[in-house]
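If your schedule permits, I should be very grateful for your opinion on a structural question. What I wish to show you is a protein chain and, alongside it, a tokenised description of its three-dimensional fold. Would you kindly read the sequence against the tokens and tell me how you understand this chain to fold? Here, with my thanks, is the record as I have it:

===
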Amino acid sequence: MYAEETDVLNVALFGMTAKEWKDNNPELAQKGNMRDYTDLLHLVILNNLQNSNALLIEEKVPQRERLIRLNNSAKRQMEALKDNKSLKNLEYFQEQVRENKLIE
């Protein structure tokens, strides 16, 4: 059940299942999963979608309807957050950490 729900979220946000991503990115898949290679914006939206999905499951909304609602929500959030200055700053710091350039 959990893998299936994860795929609902992946399809709603990324447009593909984890298996499809692995098949399309075999070299990256050896080192991690699709979420390991996404940006902070997508991770924030994914977290929001997880919370929304839990509420929709509680309300017994069928999976197909949840997928549609979650996809629409992901699109709205992407539009609203894509130019968010605070998120851009966090992405900058995330990149600095990845490159080990952040001075302690």
